[in-house]
Amino acid sequence: AQSVTQPDIHITVSEGASLELRCNYSYGATPYLFWYVQSPGQGLQLLLKYFSGDTLVQGIKGFEAEFKRSQSSFNLRKPSVHWSDAAEYFCAVGADSGGSNYKLTFGKGTLLTVNP
Amino acid sequence: DGGITQSPKYLFRKEGQNVTLSCEQNLNHDAMYWYRQDPGQGLRLIYYSQIVNDFQKGDIAEGYSVSREKKESFPLTVTSAQKNPTAFYLCASSIFPSDTQYFGPGTRLTVL
């Protein structure tokens, strides 16, 4: 079965600074990879996804993520953070969980605080 | 506008009562899902349905039930057998089971 680890529970950055949120996964093959963002009391919004091809993927709101097979990682980056980026970020891995059942497994999330 | 709607946004119930959460989508998606979110725990899969009139248990199905009588609707019932039902519940859908999942706005259930 697959698993996802987001090592940082809470990150604080200053507005305008760069951001990198870490995500590591465990799975025997290359899974589908996703980053979602959640504002307080809201649903999840898809930021970007990786299925195959170019390992650097661009998403909405100026975010990008890079798939590194050798490190089993899919880290999310943004060159300059805006105050509106403050939210919780979830990494997710989609893969077969056995019996041809596809399953999306989520990390526990990283809460981003942006200081003015 | 196409999307996923969940109602109500906030729900309060007394302990021992069953409660049903609504999830409707007009995206013509085949697959629908229910997740439970607790603080610091990420999302955990309760039930999912790949097609009308069919559904499977997820990781934490005990104390919950679902139905899928229409493609657009996937209601979740939280029964009195669920030991700790207070949580944030999220519904999602995808075109087919291994495609990208899109989420509704969620329902916060509080059992008093």
Key descriptive features of the protein:
heterodimer, A: 116 residues, mainly beta, six-stranded mixed sheet, four-stranded antiparallel sheet, B: 112 residues, seven-stranded mixed sheet
Structure description:
The complex is a heterodimer of chains A (116) and B (112). Chain A is 0% helix and 54% strand. Chain A has 116 residues and is an all-beta fold. Chain B has 112 residues and is mostly beta strands. Chain B contains no helices and 11 strands. The A-B interface holds A 9, 32, 34, 36, 41-46, 49, 90, 94, 101-104, 106-109 and B 4, 6, 33, 40-43, 45, 56, 90, 92, 97-98, 100-106, 108.
- Cα end-to-end separation of chain B: 35 Å
Shape of chain B: globular
Secondary structural class of chain B: mainly beta
Number of helices of chain B: 0
Topology:
The complex is a heterodimer of chains A (116) and B (112).
Chain A lengths: L2 E3 L4 E5 L4 E3 L2 E3 L5 E7 L5 E7 L5 E3 L5 E5 L4 E6 L8 E10 L5 E5 L3 E6 L1
Parallel strand pairs in A: 2-12
Antiparallel strand pairs in A: 1-4, 3-9, 5-6, 5-10, 7-8, 8-9, 10-11, 10-12
Chain B lengths: L3 E4 L2 E4 L5 E7 L5 E7 L5 E9 L2 E4 L6 E3 L9 E3 L8 E8 L7 E2 L3 E5 L1
Parallel strand pairs in B: 2-11
Antiparallel strand pairs in B: 1-3, 3-8, 4-5, 4-9, 5-6, 7-8, 9-10, 9-11
